[in-house]
Amino acid sequence: MRFFAYPYVGPEEIRRRSIAAPPGALILSPPDLPSWLADHPDALVEGATYVVDLRGRLRLAPRRSEHVACAGGEEVLAAGEMGFVSQWRTPTVSAVSNLSTGYRPDVSCWDAVAESLARAGLSAPSGFTTSVHFRRCPACGESTLVKEQWFVCTFCDADLPLEWNVSARREVDVVAELDRARRLGPA
Questions:
Q1: For position 135, what pLDDT does the model report?
Q2: Which residues of the chain have pLDDT under 70?
Q3: CB within 8 A of 176, min separation 6: which ones?
Q4: Distances from the Cα of 125 to the Cαs of 67, 139, 153, in angstroms?
Q5: 48 with 81: CB under 8 angstroms?
Q6: Distance of CA 73 to CAs 18, 24, 45, 155, Å?
Q7: pLDDT tens-digit profile of 11-42?
Q8: What's the rounded Cα separation, in Å, for the pair 18 and 10?
């Protein structure tokens, strides 16, 4: 499985503040989600911050957490917000976005999200319920959100590229990352 790894591109001050925070909780199997929601009941109402780490694992943190803290300061395969509903006392993932201004991932990161949810034994929507398009303006260098498919910089009115260009990203082989992690020991 190959995915893009997105580096943190948000404010350095937020990264520094987040260093001491514990990473998000790993959700590796179906019982992990209700257990995490029992510890964070507000998430059933307001949702949660999520990342998919370089090993393809889903991590959750309370909604107002920084994505970089949830990721333990590392690159991510995906980042955004996740919502839940509880039906017949069984919580399910009901909403997923790629809204992370710290990582600004491309909408193509959905594949990493879907894979992490499947590996954890959780059902998922068929795609992002809210997708956000981030672009860096080639004229002024600012990073911006594309709204209503209008690819124009909100800072200088220059045309924005149709392809994702926020930062350098690298392709990651998740299986190789898992093998490397096994050799290094638990994280």
A1: 97
A2: 176-187
A3: none
A4: 21, 37, 31
A5: yes
A6: 7, 11, 27, 29
A7: 999 999 998 889 999 999 999 999 999 999 99
A8: 12
Instruction: Give the pLDDT of residue 73.
Output: 95
Share of the chain above pLDDT 70, in %: 94
Pairwise CA distance, residues 147 & 145, whole Å: 6
Does residue 114 contact residue 124 with C-beta atoms inside 8 Å? yes
> Which residue type sits at 140?
C
> Residue 147: which region, alpha, beta or left (left: phi > 0; alpha: psi -120 to 50)?
beta
In 3D space, the residue among 77, 36, 91 whose CA is nearest the CA of residue 60 turns out to be 36
Give how far Cα 53 sits from Cα of 67, 148, 150, Å.
11, 29, 31
Can you tell me which residue has the tokens 């392709």? 171
State residue 175's pLDDT score: 78
Give the chain's radius of gyration (CA, Å).
Answer: 17
**Euclidean distance between the first and final Cα of the chain, in Å?**
21
- One-letter amino acid at 126 equals S
Which helix (H) or strand (E) segment holds residue 3: the answer is strand 2-5
Burial classification of residue 62, based on how many CB atoms lie within 10 Å of its CB (0-12 exposed, 13-18 middle, 19 or more buried): middle
Please state, in angstroms and rounded to a whole number, the distance separating the CA atoms of residues 106 and 146.
12
